[in-house]
Amino acid sequence: MNYKLFHFNSLTSTQDKAKEFAKKGLSSAVIISDVQTRGRGRFKRKWHSSKGGLWMSVLLKPKNAQHLQYLTFAAAVSVVNAIKKITGINVKIKWPNDVHYKGKKLCGILTEGIFGKENHVVVGIGLNVNQDKFPEDIKNIATSLKLIKNETYAIKKISLLILEEFSNIYEKIYDKNKFNGILEIWKENCDTLNKNIKVTTGKKKVLYGQAVGVAEDCSLLLKLNNKKTIKIIEGDVHIRY
Question: CA angle, 166 as apex, 58 and 27 as ends, to 5°?
């Protein structure tokens, strides 16, 4: 897939710029910014996006825009594959959208749909690459490739490899409606499954149990302590090591 690449020194967020481009009828565009002044993650949380990270949004016009959750999974797998190829670090996916190393967050993914006369999807990827420190409130839960390997990496090289991996999955699996194929490769790279976890749902309810699987719609299957299994559609997972 041929993407049009747009690079900025600073943006409020690459997601916002992608949405602007969608209104102008653009698609197959990649927006990268050195800095985001108002980067955000799930639940509109602030995402610290200083210089040294990869802040990227991919604007797509898929035939099947209603299956956004699979694009989140596809992006997570793409990031894992790219990191392994470039650094050799064995990173894992935490349901639903984080890539982490030994429990510390390296990357978050935010997928948003733009529905109207034409449907677009924006897949946002925020990856900590060359930062050597983080703000006080996240320094114990975030890490970067540089902090793990004590090496500086070429952000452009990483971005192009992630795009290559993502395009492969998008064209060969997602576009052909082989959603089970995405689930399978995602499961191979996810370390949430079969763990005892705590989940804080979107409605702030706290649940404890074992992550026993992922449903067809990418929701998490949680086996509660009373042996009942329920579906978690959105929430924060804390793995109880």
Answer: 30
